[in-house]
Amino acid sequence: METRRHFIKQSAAGLVSVLALSQLNCLMTAGRPKNVLFIICDDLNDSLENLGGHPQAVTPNLDRLMQKSVRFTNAHSNDPICGPSRASFLTGIYPHKSGYFGYKQQQNHWRKNPVLKGAKTFMEHFGANGYDVYGTGKIFHNGHEDWSVWKEDDGFGIEPTFGPVAWDGSFKRGTHDHDLGLALPSVSKDCPDGPQKWRWTSSFGSLADVPAYPPEPEKGIPGYKGWICFGKPFHYDGPDDRDLMPDELNAQWASAILDKKHDNPFMLCVGMNRPHSCWHAPQKYFDMHPLESIQLPPFLENDLEDCAKALRPPAKFWADSGYRKYERIMRCGGVDNWETPGSTGVSGLCQFCR
Asked: What is the DSSP string of 35-101?
């Protein structure tokens, strides 16, 4: 039986390092230094069929990788929140040692923590031992990057983003996808409650569903048609005439680093933004999973009854966000509303999405 607790726990387990810090010295001392490729996917869970997950998952590339790899099937996140989890596995310091558990994580950069500010990431460890260290995509948590860990000049590729996203032409706090992005209009209108415009955080749909938000002059909203990514227009005029998505750019950049000639041993860190929401993808991937054939996992209707009140709605901040997301996915087909249905104010659940 798939319980909500198991669903949330397994999702959190996606942010687990594939390379233990205790093994790093072996790579550098056992004869000729070996090149290292480190890959991390954001919010990956155990839905892969070969990990005992969903039987309808189609993951041929990951399946081939698993066949050549050691699988850790009882791995857990050091902290079930984005920022402290990454700060922990990148430095090898547990949250209960640093005290960095994620309170207001967007305002509290991990490098400001008294324990973590002097800690070395494993990238810095490689760099201090003769390696050229490269990176692309989402390695650190959003806004928590430490650009100094990468090789100078050409050491970093594509900045992290969850785009492409929809937009209504109005500006929020800045010009990045995190600040501008909305859900697809086709997703917003189908959810039975809440405001008409939803945030990008749990939007889903095909790139072929090109978003178009009409102008709202009375609200100072100019309207916009088309996708945006990296805070600028994302070209889409059909499946064979479009810009590359961020993870496609990450893969392309990483391949170029692997193909080039290197004078020194190198470490390459590749951070894939997906499967973190929003779930916007080319139409061919939706065609692989017709809605009428999707098998939903079984769950207990009364699964919350024996949980601590602090961990379930209406808890504050992040504590119950997993449950809220689950309910909205089941009720609205993936829409994640960061406002309380029927209210006019923003709740305290997502400080970053304000």
From this structure: PEEEEEETT--S-SGGGT--TT---HHHHHHHHTS---TT---SSSSHHHHHHHHHHT--HHHH---
The 10s digit of each residue's pLDDT in 73-92 is 888 888 888 899 999 999 99
Alpha-carbon distance of 311 to 319, in angstroms, equals 5
Cα separation, 267 vs 251, in Å, equals 15
Tokens of 77: 């996140």
Q: Please, where are the H alpha helices in the chain?
A: 4-12, 24-29, 60-67, 82-91, 95-98, 122-127, 177-180, 185-188, 246-259, 283-287, 321-332
Per the CB < 8 A criterion, the answer to whether 137 and 158 are in contact is yes
Mean pLDDT (whole number) for 176-182: 87
From residue 117, give the alpha-carbon distance in Å to each of 109, 122, 127, 139: 9, 14, 18, 17
pLDDT tens for 202-225 read 788 999 999 999 999 998 999 999
pLDDT of residue 77: 86
